[in-house]
Every structure is written in structure tokens, then in C-alpha cells.
Amino acid sequence: MQPEYLARLSPDLQAMVGEIEAAIETEILVVVDPERAAHIRPDGRHILACKVNQDGALLLTPSADYFPNGGVFHELLHVKRFLVDGVPQLGDNPASEHWNLELDEGLHKLDLSLEHFFIVPQELGRYPDRSG
After folding, report:
1. Which pairs from 88-96 meet CB under 8 Å and 24+ separation?
2. In the beta sheet, which residues pair with residue 61?
3. Fewer Cβ within 10 Å of end Cβ, the chain: N or C?
4. pTM here?
5. Domain boundaries, the chain
């Protein structure tokens, strides 16, 4: 993770980033994605996101100034589950001649909902102020 973002995190999250990066043997990159600014929770907080593939992970933030520990922890849990723990993700096979974008997107949404059954309890256990 870029030093300017890593320095903003609590020591335990800095350690978590280091452990994940060591396990996946690549850096988790933080990318400012202005489109994230359109994703706002009912309580007014922005929503971070991550993109994960076999090559590594990106954490997406709506601005360089928005990088809260609770949101980062949530995204790091996704990264760890997919890239370190090897939890599979649902999706249609893009190599198939019958690949269907709508099916793929639907499976991704279902997968994300199921993933949150595991992620959110851990997140709220550490950051109870994130409920709501």
C-alpha cells in the first residue's frame, strides 16, 4: 500500500496490510475513483470498494482524503478472504460461449451479499460505530 495511505491507518490495520501483502506477494494499491462519490450510505458516509483478481487487489476511495479505518478494514477482509483464504467468487464463466453479462452481474451481486454475512459481523465487532 502506498505510504501516504498506510500512514493513516491504525497500527493493527497497518500490520494487517503487511500480512496480506506478504501472503499475496504484491502491494495492495489505493486508487482514487471519483465515481465512488456517488455511493453514499443512508448515514451520509461514503463507501469504499475493492477490486480483486488473481494479480492482486485495488482499494477504491472517492477522494484522497477519505480513508477511514472501519471502511478499510471491511475491504481488507474481502481481499484476505479472496486472495489469502481462497474463498471462491460466484460468476459466469467469461470463457464460455454461453457467457451472459446479466447472469454474471447477478451472480456477482449475490456473491457480494453472501460475502457480507461473513464480513459485516467482523467489521462491527471491531468498529461498532459502523452499524446503521
Report:
1. 90/114
2. 32
3. C
4. 0.91
5. 3-130
